[in-house]
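PROTEIN–LIGAND DATA SHEET

This sheet pairs a single protein chain with one bound small molecule, flavin mononucleotide, given as SMILES. Inputs appear in the order they were entered. The predicted three-dimensional arrangement of chain and ligand is reported afterwards as a token string under its own label.
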Amino acid sequence: MKITVFSGSHKGREGNTLLMVTEFLKGAGEAGAETELIILAEKKIGYCKGLFECWLKTPGRCSIRDDMDELLPLFLASDVVVFACPVYFDNVPALMKTFVDRLTPLLYPHFEEVEKGEYGHVKRFDKVPDLAVISNCGLPGQSNFQVQSLFFRRLARSLHTEVIAEVYRDEGEIFRGKDNMLLKPLLSKYRKLLRSAGRELVERQVISEKLREALEKPIVPPSIYIKFGNEEWDRLIKENKLA
Ligand SMILES: Cc1cc2nc3c(=O)[nH]c(=O)nc-3n(C[C@H](O)[C@H](O)[C@H](O)COP(=O)(O)O)c2cc1C
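PREDICTION REPORTED AS:
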């Protein structure tokens, strides 16, 4: 099984998203998957021009020459594609949206009824990978992922595939405390869960309900996260004023 992660944090390799992806891929690799990680921030990906040239002038190929020339074939050659990113104003960051918009050549322009009362575009390629999502956000609460979850499910519908797993970490700024003595054991436990998620996805093509519940449990109670988080913001504000 080939799993490709397209990681869309604007912070590239420095982000909290990558900590999650790294553990997930370790688990997937242990279970025998071939894995590849693409950091979108390191790629040149222009905005879709909105001209439908990939449908009308160069069918199945975008008219823009940039790194999507390699990324689209990689997308199609994967059995599972993982979209990884943080939450930005409840939604996906612009980098991820830019990448997603450039997936348009995967479809034909023609409309069809995909299920009763739901319409979409005809698919151009027979084999489309299953999708999975890994995301984190700064606030406490799983409701912060409502828009993203719907976005990726609608994307899967548009691309004629399905979302087979979603891993959402609220309180994502907790990863910044990875050297804190009290947080270390809690984060190490969470990292193990992420590795199990990677393994389960390869072995069963789903993440069990039990593991999903464990992955979504707050790492620390929201009141504690808010208190220490705000203290950390005050410290950083002070530090930056002094600099
Ligand atoms: C522009 C911007 C918008 C954000 N919007 C939200 C938000 O709506 N909800 C939330 O919980 N966190 C939000 N965050 C916090 C990020 O999701 C959080 O810091 C995350 O851990 C960043 O992941 P990264 O380090 O991989 O980039 C936002 C961060 C930025 C920079």
